[in-house]
Design goal:
Strand 5, helix 4 (108-121) and strand 6 (126-128) form a beta-alpha-beta unit. Helices cover 41% and strands 17% of the residues. The strands form two sheets. Strands 4-3-2-5-6 form a five-stranded mixed sheet, covered by helices on one side. The chain starts with a helix and ends with a strand. The chain folds into two domains: 2-34; 49-132, Nucleotidyltransferase, domain 5 (2-Layer Sandwich). By secondary structure, it is α/β, with parallel strands linked by helices. One of its GO terms (molecular function) is transmembrane transporter activity. Keywords: Cell membrane, Membrane, Protein transport, Transmembrane, Transmembrane helix, Transport. It is found in: Cell membrane. One of its GO terms (biological process) is protein transport.
């Protein structure tokens, strides 16, 4: 009789983990869906310094290296294809903004070319990435 009482007591004291696992699984799905992933332009640049630098997240990153090559989404882009590439990326995320990451030795003409293409597309939020001095 004592064996039957022990098993009955163990059954009453057991905790069902199924609802907890359901909640954890739903939370995992929520965090995966709402996560923002870091996008990289594809080229490492040495940014110029500025005293008013701020940290912001961006949806479109464009890098200009010291050789004045333009890199968008890990691909080198020709000057004539900048507008088309920006249009495609902006169509994927119309609420996002553009950050231009020029190298210290990059030409200001390339920065102006990208900013002008962004303005023609309708991207209103354009900024230039710098290092805080």
């Amino acid at each position: 009789m004592s064996k039957r009482q022990n098993t009955a007591e163990e059954e009453q004291g057991a905790i069902d983990l199924t609802p907890m696992l359901d909640v954890v699984f739903i939370m995992l799905i929520f965090f995966i869906v709402t996560a923002t992933f870091i996008k990289e332009p594809g080229e490492e640049v040495v940014k110029p310094e500025a005293t008013t630098a701020e940290l912001k997240a961006a949806s479109i990153l464009v890098a200009i290296n010291e050789s004045n090559e333009i890199w968008i989404a890990k691909e080198q882009v020709d000057d004539r294809m900048v507008k088309v590439t920006l249009e495609r990326l902006y169509a994927e995320n119309p609420k996002g903004w553009l950050v231009i990451q020029p190298d210290k030795k990059a030409s200001i003409e390339k920065v102006a070319l990208i900013a002008d293409a962004a303005r023609k597309i309708g991207i209103e939020k354009v900024s230039v990435a710098t290092e805080k001095s």
